[in-house]
Structures are given as C-alpha cells and as structure tokens.
Amino acid sequence: LLRDNIRRTLQESIYRYAPLLPIRDSNNVVTLGEGGTPLVPMTSLGQLIGTPRLLGKDETRNPTQSFKDRPISVGISVLRELCATDVACISAGGNTASSVAAYCARAQIKAHLYLPSWTPRAKLLHALALGAEVKRIEGADNLSSFNFGMSEMRRKGFLPLMTRPKINPFPLEGCKTIAYELVEQLKGDAPDWVVIAVGTGTNLAGVWKGFKELHDCGLAEQLPRLLATQSNTCMPLVDAFERGLDAEEIVPWPDAHTIASGLNDAYPDACVTALQALKDSHGKAISVTDQGILEAVLLLARQEGLFAEPAGAASIAGLIEAIREGIIKKDDRVVCLITGSGLKQPDALTDFIKVPKPIRGASRNNSPTFHD
Ligand SMILES: Cc1ncc(COP(=O)(O)O)c(C=O)c1O
After folding, report:
1. Residue pLDDT, tens place only, 70-101
2. Which of these, 20, 131, 222, 335, is most buried using a 10 Å CB contact count?
C-alpha cells in the first residue's frame, strides 16, 4: 500500500513521500521543490582516499542550497495547518535561517530570525533579501542568541520554526526523506556506511528514523551503519560516544568555535536521539580538525567539481579519518552527505586560495592582436 502510494505521488519533491509526513491537508504544503537530490558517484575522490565505491548525496541542490529545506518545508507546512502568522527561528550557522526566510516568503508568513553575530555573511544577506526580520546578537557561542530569541518568541507569541526537536519536533520528519531517497536510489539496498556531519544532531537522528521506518515496513532490506563527524573544536556527540556516556550525561561544549558554521552548536538538541541512532546502527563517531575540513572542501571541489561549505564537506573529512583509523574499509559502499553549498560561506577559504592580482594595462596591450 505504501509503495503504491509513493509511486502515485509523482511529485519531484519530498512530498512524494506525503503518506509518511505529518501534514494532514495537502493544501497546506509549502514547497519550493526541495529534495530529489542526486546521488553522485565520486570515483575520482574515492580512489584517491581509498574508498572507490564512494557516493555523495548532493544536498547543495536544494532550493536554498542546503539540506535544511527538507525539515523547514515540513515545519512550515505544519505551522500553516496551525494558522501561524509569525514564526521565530533561532539559527546559528545560518542555513536554517535562510531556509526559514525562503519558505516564509513562499507562504507569506512573517519570519523573525535571531542569529549570533558570527553567522556567515552570505547566509545573512540571503535571509535579508528574502524579507525576513533579522536580529543579530553578540556572543561567542549560540547561547546568547538562543536565550534572547526564546524570550522574545514567548513574549510576542511567535511559533517556533527551527530544527531543534525539543522545541519543534516536526522538522526532523523532513530529514528522514534523505534516507527514503537513498533507499530508492540504491534500489532497495542500503550502503554500508552513511557519513553525516553533526551540529544539533537532528539530521543524523532524522536520517536514521527514515532508514528504520522503511526497514520496518519491509521497503529496505538492510540498514546502514552511521558515522557521525564533528570538528574537534565542538564535539559534544563524539565526546559522549567515545567516553561511552549516556545521553543525559552529554554536556554543552565549552568554547565552541569551528569554522564549519553549521556544526558550531555547543548545545546539541537532538544528540540524545543521535547517540541512540549511532548505537542502534553499530555506528561510530569521529572528530576532525578544522584544517582537515577545509582541505576536504578543496578535495571535493577539485576531484569532483562539487563546491561545499565547510560543514557540507565535513563528512568527507570524517571519512578520510575513518579510513585512516581502519573503521571504513576499501570495499565498503559509502555515502557522504554533502549538506550545504560553498557559496553560502566562501570566505572560509580566504587563507587557502590565492586570488590573482589584476594584470595592469592588459586590455590596452592586447587590443591590437584582438583586431588582427
Ligand atoms: C551545511 C550543514 N551541514 C550540517 C549541519 C548539521 O546538521 P544538524 O544540526 O541537523 O546536526 C548543518 C546545521 O546547520 C548545516 O548547516
């Protein structure tokens, strides 16, 4: 029944899986055509690093260039069912913010965004161009903007639209469509490993939920193992996993400051579920350096032509480390989630890329040969 339902929904968006999503009335769906992203073979990069069967799920192709469009489309659609007029989003890395701004514009609902002052400029401009009201809050980590945003949201009666399951559980349901698509793209199979970079842990928790649901329904034969990756400058989940802690023992990460803005979350909301997902999938968690993440951005760009922001390429950095540690083997089929576009945070590469100086007087010198 489910398989037929999915087949009948011939939409090229996550609403292809409408029977499995929490929106009652399809008239309330707010979509920009999110999802349906390609699963690209990355043979050249795979051969170079030692996993020739490497695939990348290219989430940069989403309408606002990150995977966040999946959870935010689901979240805003549920809020439209509740007749929301104003929504609040406390974002840090900024991809949720630009996604919320876009879907709110689409739904003609007012978006109020609360961002720390370090949110990358491209994402800030993106959200402002989309008409969101933005408040920027000073503070090195995301706690100040979180507290400010929460108190204003409560005072003004805005409804929350963000990928923090403790505050709004619905967006996580959008993340699970990544797993549905992977199972479809691999014709019912699952890869050996799915590598996911972790901030709040919502995406990892959602992807695991998706695999489990399809498996429980008999639509996926196997389950993959999950590999979580965080920067060693903000690694509450990896730390908890390595030390064998229980979920309630996870503590905020002191002095979080990774260049991978989407992963710079010292207060990981969904890590309880994410930690459980890692255990259930017989997975692993691994930390990488910021230097390793930036090198992964360039490797991915130069071997595969795919430009990701640091958080978007952190899965590649995690994979390289996992191969080095012997966790992932040469014959494993691996999917890395490439979660966000490099155009959302190009300044991260300033120290890595030399911009050539303009050649002086070139136009004057060259003009005679041009007319020859
Ligand atoms: C590009 C990118 N990748 C990964 C993540 C981490 O996702 P999550 O917070 O669901 O763990 C984020 C979060 O903002 C992100 O923007």
Report:
1. 999 999 999 999 999 999 999 888 999 999 99
2. 335
